[in-house]
Specification:
Strand order of the largest sheet: 1-7-8-10-9
Radius of gyration: 23 Å
Strand content: 15-25%
Number of strands: 21
CATH class of the largest domain: Alpha Beta
Shape: globular
Mean pLDDT: 95
CATH architecture of the largest domain: Roll
Bound molecules: flavin-adenine dinucleotide, FE2/S2 (inorganic) cluster
Number of helices: 17
């Protein structure tokens, strides 16, 4: 059964929106229809956190609370979820939520424009049984910008939450919320509104039926790239199929040879899972956008954009990643080496979607990755480099090196790899390998970095990697 209404939980009630506009942002709905203006618009592109709200979703019979950017979330994706706004944190008796009270106690707000966003990011951390460690706190607010207070009072406020009673109104209402979420959780959505089509199938079979009749549909996963067509380019997206509604595609499996990541699995889950196998993969993901972005964005979305500065892509290339594609009839497995054709162009054909991504497990290799950007947090790479190396008796047995930000597509450094192959890592080999990068890449200058800077950084990262393996500062693969 499909419906053209979406249902969500707000203030412990089921809300229904009939035939919503599939291009309307959640932020717009909150401010103009719900008339709740605590949630702010700053950048309208997921970069400042002023629009942060929290969504509750059922996961293993519990509510999983996630902070998201409402400015780049399309309204119909609210189907089946609980919406929590800054206005909802105050209790019925008029008491501030512990997170709000902490911000008051530690002077965490001045002009107040960013404050609702910070409060909601900290609220989601509060609800996740956080240990309130420094790293967790910084991670949870890395996607929130403040121009006047400064971050120290906010961090102090966050730390003070450690010993606070966690028994807030959301915990008290949990049973009822779960009951309501179960009631609305179970339907596929088909909306024809204002000349636009929106589909949110629940199964792959439904998706394929949709694709049969709608070959030109735009796949929407986390929407952290696609939504900017509406919010920044001010264009319409007339036909959308929402992939993150397909639970079958939200998984991480491991058969000891490779990790398989379903297309609708959020990056935040991969970040936690892959740490044990490739700690440097997690290190890079921690600097990928913000928690709000990683709570919804997917590897599939990152691959499909084929952006030269997509952070997963050099890592996956160096790990010999494969992409599993499906269309109405067939499944195809393509090596990422062959997937990117030219600037933002891939081998993905009409009617074909990314089903999953396979990340081989190299048990005897060393894998390292580095990201260079102007800011540490929530910034796009100038250069990203990944190295995957097997050394046997001091000799390099196999090597895969890939860079982002150095060409029109994320790309392997084939000439550089040839220098390393069957060699011992000596100073002269390092120099030759650095020189070979000039054959592999001719980077461009843009607002992020100049051509010369990119090449210099690429060489330096190569040298850094070699020095680290020589000094045995290895961050290897752990099983
Ligand atoms: C504030 C901000 C910070 C960011 N920081 C980073 C960063 O640090 N590093 C980085 O690499 N990127 C970053 N990005 C870019 C973006 O988050 C990533 O590219 C992300 O992985 C896209 O995934 P998504 O699920 O949101 O894709 P979407 O936006 O939903 O889709 C992106 C593209 O992929 C296609 N697509 C999605 N799913 C599928 C599928 N299953 N099959 C076929 N095609 C599909 C869509 O049609 C669309 O063309 C940032 C974006 C923002 C807004
Ligand atoms: S308004 Fe800046 S992140 Fe949404
Ligand atoms: S308090 Fe003014 S921007 Fe943060």
């Amino acid at each position: 059964m499909s419906s053209d209404n979406i249902d969500f939980i707000y203030q412990e009630k089921i809300f229904t929106i009939k035939n919503p506009d599939s291009n309307e942002t959640l932020l717009n709905y909150i401010r103009t229809k719900l008339k709740k203006t605590g949630t702010k618009e700053g950048c309208a592109e997921g970069g400042c956190g002023a629009c942060t709200v929290v969504l509750g979703e059922l996961k293993n019979n519990e509510i999983n609370y996630q902070a998201i950017n409402s400015c780049i979330t399309f309204l119909p994706t609210l189907q089946g979820k609980q919406l929590i706004l800054v206005e909802d944190l105050i209790s019925k008796e008029g008491h501030l939520h512990p997170v709000q009270q902490a911000m008051v106690n530690y002077h965490g707000s001045q002009c107040g424009f960013c404050t609702p966003g910070f409060v909601m990011s900290l609220f989601s951390m509060f609800k996740k049984n956080s240990k309130f460690k420094n790293d967790e706190i910084k991670d949870s607010i890395a996607g929130n910008l403040c121009r006047c207070t400064g971050y120290q009072p906010i961090i102090k406020a966050a730390k003070s939450l450690k010993n606070k009673n966690k028994n807030d109104q959301f915990r008290k209402n949990k049973k009822n919320t779960i009951k309501l979420l179960k009631k609305i959780n179970n339907k596929s959505i088909v909306i024809y509104s204002d000349g636009k089509k929106y589909f949110a199938p629940r199964y792959i079979t439904e998706l394929k039926k949709i694709l049969k009749k709608n070959i030109d549909v735009n796949f929407l996963s986390g929407g952290t790239d696609l939504s900017l067509i509406v919010t920044k380019e001010r264009k319409n997206i007339n036909s959308i199929v929402y992939m993150n509604s397909i639970r079958e595609l939200n998984y991480i499996k491991n058969n000891n040879k490779y990790i398989e990541v379903g297309a609708s699995t959020p990056l935040i889950e991969l970040e936690n899972y892959i740490k044990k196998y490739y700690p440097d993969f997690t290190k890079i993901l921690k600097r990928y956008g913000s928690t709000q972005i990683r709570n919804v964005a997917t590897v599939a979305g990152n691959i499909a954009t084929a952006s030269p500065i997509g952070d997963c892509l050099p890592l996956l290339l160096s790990l010999n990643g494969k992409v599993v594609l499906q269309d109405l009839k067939k499944t195809k497995i393509i090596s990422l080496d062959d997937f990117f054709i030219s600037y933002r162009k891939t081998r993905l054909q009409k009617g074909q979607f990314i089903h999953s991504i396979r990340i081989p497990l190299f048990k005897d290799n060393t894998f390292k990755a580095y990201k260079i950007s102007k800011r540490f947090d929530d910034d796009i790479s100038s250069v990203c480099a990944a190295f995957n190396l097997e050394i046997v008796k001091n000799k390099i047995q196999s090597v895969r090196i890939a860079y982002g930000g150095m060409a029109a597509i994320p790309k392997r450094a084939i000439y550089c790899e040839k220098i390393f192959s069957n060699s011992v890592v000596t100073d002269s080999i390092i120099e030759k390998a650095k020189k070979a990068l000039e054959k592999d890449f001719s980077p461009i200058s843009d607002m992020r970095a100049s051509r010369l800077y990119r090449m210099e950084v690429a060489k330096n990262l190569l040298e850094k990697f070699c020095v680290e393996i020589k000094q045995k500062k290895l961050i290897g693969v752990y099983f």
